[in-house]
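Reading group handout, session on sequence-to-structure problems. Before we discuss, look at one worked example. The prompt was deliberately terse, the way you'd type it at a terminal:

> structure Cytotoxic translational repressor of toxin-antitoxin stability system

The input record follows.
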Amino acid sequence: MREVVYTRDAARALSRMPANTAKTIRAKVEQ
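And the output record:
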């Protein structure tokens, strides 16, 4: 159930910094 956490973080990052969303998601996926 890691996808749920990842999706939640992605949504939060998108709401906070839409410009750094891709970078945040990529960093999270790599981790």
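Points for discussion. First: The first helix runs from residue 2 to 16. Second: The chain has one domain: 1-31.
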